[in-house]
Amino acid sequence: MKPGECILGVEGGGTKTGWVLVETVAAVDAVNWEFHVINQGKLPPSNFRLTTPERLRVIFAELPKQIDRAGVFLAGCATEEDRRSLKQICLEIWPNAKIITGSDRDSGLAGALDHGDGIVVNAGSGSSVTGRRGERIERAGGWGHILGDAGGGYFLSIQALRLILREHDLHRGEISFAAKILHALSLNNLDELVRWVQTADKMDIAMLAPVVFEAANEGDARMMEIIEEGARVLCEYTEAVASGLHLLAPKVALIGGLFYRDSIYTHAFRRRLKKNLPDARVAVAERAPELGAAWLASELCDHTAVHPKLSETEIDGLAAALTEQRNPRSENLEKMSGRELVQVFVEEEQFVQAALRAAAAELTRAVEIVAESLRNGGRLFYVGAGSSGRIGVLDASEIPPTFGAPRELVQGVIAGGMTALSRSAEGAEDDETAGALAMDERRIKNPDVVIGISASGRTPFVLGALARAKQSSAKTILLTCNPTTAGGADARQPRSPIAATVLDLVITLPVGPEILTGSTRLKAGTATKVALNIISTGAMIALGKVRGNLMVDLHTTSAKLRDRAVRVVAKLTQCDYSSAREKLEANEWNLRRIIGGMDKK
After folding, report:
1. Known catalytic residue: 398?
2. Which domain holds residue 297?
3. Cα–Cα distances in Å, from 593 out to 129, 222, 545, 569?
4. 361 and 479 share a domain?
5. Which of 255, 508, 510, 575 is buried most deeply by CB count within 10 Å?
6. Which one of the listed residues 348, 429, 432, 514 is annotated catalytic?
7. Could you give the count of Cα atoms lying within 13 Å of 532 in the half-sphere of its Cβ?
């Protein structure tokens, strides 16, 4: 950075988008700079989760264009994928600027604390508590208005609206606050209020918070109780963050519209916090979060890119993956007839069979590892991204109905979460930390088994999960379609950046180049699905959930499954269909109970 650079700081939430344009004046030392504010202002709300990309572009288009750097931090921008998506939008507006993106938690922390330790309590339309001690960050709240945001404007307003209806139902009278709300919304009665709430969004409701505070200031005891409850929850979160960071006398900075606008909330929070953290230093932050956004841009954006730049070694490794090679037998797909295309697909399946046969020993060992772990109280986790993740989730979801196993016994973990099952979230696979955190969230422990599924053997999300699982002493298996390293110390190890010490077993299924180059949902996907079918079914058989080739623990939750259960009982007890059905009805359709009775005889 040099003198004269223009830096734009943007902090967006559910109420507004604050921005400031500063110019670097002089370096105070090798790290810190002095800034001169050129311009600043407010624009419409820009919560990343609640505002469409098209709307964000319209809002950002109103901001200064001639800038060198920008820090854009929005509420709801929580994940690495979110940050990348936001940065792409920003680059459309400021293509030549250095840009850093993130959550309003980040800009709030920077604006209120600089480099220092402390806790920032944000109460606007939503709410969050974020603390820092050295390099460690602790968070509480900030889960959005459906599951969280306790103590924010939405929380206070929705509590007040519910109180209006509750009082009406219980006492057939309207409290004075109801008239204030109806007046504020230009509504005539409670029926109209209910219809309005049913179509209102988060911000519509949160904007009623000033009416709540006005009523409390006028002596409305019910509204004061709601405000006290909001302050109480925020204090609980603050105390939890302080405890997690071992801060006995933390600096507590208050930010957000509720604290800036209504001193009654600040007093309520300070009074309650002093009871359990008497040495806390509570004050409303002096600097706006958008200044924190500008400061972060000056500090960090030189080291930030839209996509991580791969080293030459990593590029060579990806290029060497057989799943990324062109298949010489399908180089003219667009010129093939329908018949020729089908023939190519059918013929390529021979490579799936060959790969599975070659991996028979490793698949056998995988069955043994999983069965032993499940017997000892462990769980099985499939971890993958994209197609690999979806295949893992699919196999896991079939275990409960097929074998009567509890849903937590076999679990599928996919990068990007549940939304990645139905739409692409491929960028989520690049976050190694997210894979590790996914294991932490599931409390991976010693008896568990984690199978990482990665066609290339290099997916960061998967490798991060495997590394963290090994730290927790779980068994770890890598399933990959990338061929083994020639001449390596261990011929079973794939061309993968993960250390061999992290893995208990590698299963390699070299199906060869895909018909459509790089589309690992094809042969690689087929081989992966069969491999997982073998492992999970083999483990369930070892656990005694099969008799012959019949399911004996299936859940009879549909007509088809009840019919199947009847036929199983008829076969095993050598009776007719009607008698088998009567046995099941007498045993409340518990197939295992009947089988257990046979074993005792």
Report:
1. yes
2. 6-113+288-303
3. 52, 57, 13, 11
4. yes
5. 255
6. 429
7. 33
